[in-house]
Amino acid sequence: MRHLLDTTDFTTKEIDEMISLALDIIEHGDKYAHICEGKKLATLFFEPSTRTRLSFEAAMYELGGHVLGFSEASSSSTSKGESVADTIRIVSNYADIIAMRHPLEGAPRVALTKTLVPLINAGDGGHTHPTQTLTDLLTIYREKGTFDNFTVGLCGDLKYGRTVHSLIKAMCRYNGVRFVLISPEELKVPDYIIKEVLEPCGADYKEVETMEEVMEELDILYMTRVQRERFPSEEEYLKHKDAFILDCEKLKSAKESLTIMHPLPRVNEIAVEVDGDKRAKYFEQALNGKYIRMALILTLLNMKDSEERKENDEYITDTYKCANPRCICNNEPLSHIFRKTDDGSFRCVYCEEKNN
Ligand code: CP
User: Fold this and answer.
1) Residue whose C-alpha is closest to residue 327's, from 345, 356, 353
2) How far is the CA of 123 from the centre of ligand 1 (A)?
3) Nearest atom (ligand 1) to Cα of 264
């Protein structure tokens, strides 16, 4: 049985196959209309969502299947103190596949230890959001026809922006992708993304503080929201909330072939006037989310264990304490487990925070 917790759970070949499947679904939807008859998808959303939950549900309905679940933690037994592990153990008796979103980083990693059915991470705190990445890849492929040889500008809250973390992990596996990381100093990408993702794969990247200075270089501009819900204080959020606002004036120096993306929801980081620009593709991106999630459901329901995946990692338990207050292991009664990295340091298996 296979799961999707992080983008790297799939090889690039497997992702390419899923993109091809999504393209076939777009062309020949009727062929897939009954393929999941009798199957049930559980959508367990412990955190708010519009696109991810509803596109998963629409995806399962369009495949002929059924959906059950909840859209907020307060309507589940989490409100009575039930753990993630127990919730998943129960729900995996009721459904054939589970999509789960949780505000705590690493929560899907805990769910994985208990699930009896394929599990999909639909976003865990500020950590990762792999199905958004699949959505983004399908959008890029439909716009550019390739994943190779372009410059991607990632702009906004790159510290807590889980969609950015997952997208970098996926895109650095393709050839000739250059990353321009646009954020204020305080919202730069986490250290592990630089040290364990970009540098090991030899990716060409640079960090800048304004979009204006790099606009003309970009083939893709991926805007993100400054996420109020992730900041430790309202004061910190207010300091950064208007750090970047894309408008038509700023786009004057951009390429005609630029693709403007955003995982949405937006607040005010893209002015509404930009919606009319032919380069704005964020609404198409949200629609692509439904098609790629149809492909993902089909893939996971049919997928056997991969023989090639071998676990060689070294782990250490209850020696270090995870310093991330948003990590699941600091919020539920769990051991603090760390994985040894290539540079000899240790990182929390749930949220990837370094030991200290
Ligand atoms: N892009 C995204 O995850 O949107 P929702 O929070 O609405 O699901």
Assistant:
1) 353
2) 9
3) 1
